[in-house]
Amino acid sequence: MGATGAITDVAGIRVGHVQKSGDGWLSGVTVVLPPPGTVGSVDVRGGGPATHETDALDPTTLSQTVDAVVLTGGSAFGLAAAHGAQRWCEENGRGFPVPGGLVPIVPAAAIFDLGRGGDFSARPGEAMGYAATAAAAGQPEGHEVERGNVGAGTGAAIGRGTYKGGVGTASLTLDNGVVVAALAVVNALGLPFGTWPQQAEPGSAPPSQPPPPNTTLVVVATDAVLDKADCKRTASAAHAGLARALNPSHTLADGDTMFALATGAVALDRSTPTARQISLITLQSAAADVVRLAILDGISQAEAVTTAAGTLGAYGR
After folding, report:
1. Quick check: pTM over 0.90?
2. I need a surface site. Which of 188, 193, 198, 262 has the fewest CB within 10 A?
3. Could you read off the pLDDT of 119-137 as tens digits, one per residue?
4. How do strand 191-192 and strand 257-266 relate by DSSP bridges?
């Protein structure tokens, strides 16, 4: 475990939350703000994703670095929060250089929490995205990360909307000193692994009503030197941690999305092809482990919240 057990154990990573509850609101935005020069990629496995600028993170595309990652409520409407993060980055000199200025690379993904506070139209926008980015920038190095029903996890729920989900985080330090950490926003169809069968006997008829839209969003971060293709493979490997934590996962009704960021502060052993393989496999295995821990942390930190649809109980308390 790292110093704080949070994604901010990766030097230079900062996290900002902004949320609103009451008066029809139960939603928010979480921004992961990495240090300049951070490399990133993404792997989307869910059947119902709401994402922004994920194509720019493909290893075959021009840009290499990521300026911020926005996790938001509000489903596809909430992706407007990314515009606020882009505006903050532009004002602060972060972005991909183009003739005449900068274009910040700010991928985003959203959970479905529409209407959970009572007002379907209460969803994050540009102002909340800007505020969450500014909040992240204002944090000190290695700060504690607020968890539970904050930021993008404010209106999160799990188990077909039965229990509260939320924001969780965890970190691991490998034997070679590399830190691997994750932050998760858990808003899943499933429940922690091993509990789902309690809801139905094997072979019983499926529920008669379709499940509500869901999504688990995760940012994995490391201080290792990785290129964009390495980050892509790390994001892919980290999905195993999601599948270990939640049952079921990656369903047609989930938008499960995994980002991977590498700040490039610590070199891996690449002295031989074998050494390179071992170092990457070790890191990517740890990424899956830390994602599982972050997801379970987000669920355990969630508080009971009363919504227009009734009371969502805290799970695991």
Report:
1. yes
2. 198
3. 999 999 999 999 999 999 9
4. unpaired
